[in-house]
TrEMBL record:
<protein>
    <submittedName>
        <fullName>Uncharacterized protein</fullName>
    </submittedName>
</protein>
Length: 148
């Protein structure tokens, strides 16, 4: 699935999300695309990470310190995203004559079609592309921070 590209205003939680590769909330507790954050060893960021239970103590390599998100950090990020982050709806788009589907995050069905069109880079006009769409199905509703 594509990255969960959302706005997280808290620097701490943004860094946790970045370190894990921008997962969707249901992916946070599992195996993620990545799990590391690199920063200068003597930086304020490194000092904050060393003091936090959300990060490992850090290992130095190549003149940088690499931190990894702990299980406590994953749980805290998941809770923060559920409580404070606006998540767009996700739509499944299938195409006539194709055996594959695409998942698109968008605010509406029409925005999902347009997002798929931008991702496709097919050379078709938008109208031609839309005619190839077989269905647009809502997979998950948008969640506004603070709503369950």
């Amino acid at each position: 699935m594509k990255k969960c590209n959302v706005r997280i205003t808290s620097k701490h939680f943004h860094e946790l999300h970045h370190a894990l590769g921008y997962p969707w909330p249901e992916e946070i507790m599992g195996e993620t695309y990545r799990n590391h954050f690199a920063t200068d060893a003597g930086s304020d960021t490194a000092d904050c990470m060393r003091a936090s239970p959300h990060w490992t103590g850090g290992t130095e390599k190549f003149g940088m310190t690499f931190f990894h998100v702990t299980q406590d950090g994953k749980r805290a990020l998941l809770e923060h995203m559920r409580d404070s982050v606006d998540l767009p709806a996700r739509f499944e788009i299938t195409y006539h004559g194709h055996n594959w589907r695409e998942i698109v995050a968008a605010r509406s069905r029409s925005a999902a079609k347009y997002g798929a069109y931008l991702d496709a880079d097919s050379g078709d006009t938008f109208g031609e592309f839309v005619r190839r769409i077989k269905s647009v199905r809502l997979l998950s509703r948008a969640q506004i921070g603070g709503a369950a």
